[in-house]
Amino acid sequence: MLEMSHIKKRFDDLEVLTDISLTVDEGNVLGIIGPSGSGKSTLLRCAVMLEKVDSGEITYLGEKAVWDGQNGRAVYAPKKKLREISRNYGLVFQNFHLFPHYSVLKNVMDAPVHVLGQSKEEAAQSAMELLKKMGLEEKAGAYPYQLSGGQQQRVSIARALAMNPKVLFFDEPTSALDPELTGEILSVIRSLAAEKMTMVIVTHEMSFARDVADHIIFMDGGVIVEQGAPEQVINSPKNQRTMDFLSRFQN
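RE: above sequence
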């Protein structure tokens, strides 16, 4: 579903990503863990084209979005092709990013109407089904400010799913939530994993990552330090840096 090969990214003199390669197979969940500043969120932003890589290749479902040119610098596909490729993925942000002047229903149905060309009736019906799935059908007419943080994040997940993505990215989906609201979001993501939704999740919830992911990557300093099955990486890490990081968490 997704392949990233030899990705490099700098911000001025700081190399944030150093030769990162990963693959995500259909129906699998990739968990990405690591300390703050390790490059996790930058990697996600590069994967969804919110940041441009300096070199490397990004491929979705066999379609190349980015490749290395003759000078070793990244070349991006034409804008039309990138728009087509971008329909394969969705991103759920840390801080919801809902439109404050739109109702919950309009937040979810807006992109399918304007990007996918769905009729308003079709988009509204699909949006209501997703809101019901998220336990929010009674909030369809509410506005974001009237919702709890957990409810807002569930709306943002419904909005991402409304575009029928093949791959769904989560960037620390619980980091902006109070601890008591974290569980409801993790429960939603668990249910998506049970439905074999292909996902890439950056998270600081170690037990959740261990339980829901098929493969774990531990990043530090812009490189992949260790990767493998969740039980191996989180329960029995081999690298000392991974051990040091995980020693701060109770598993």
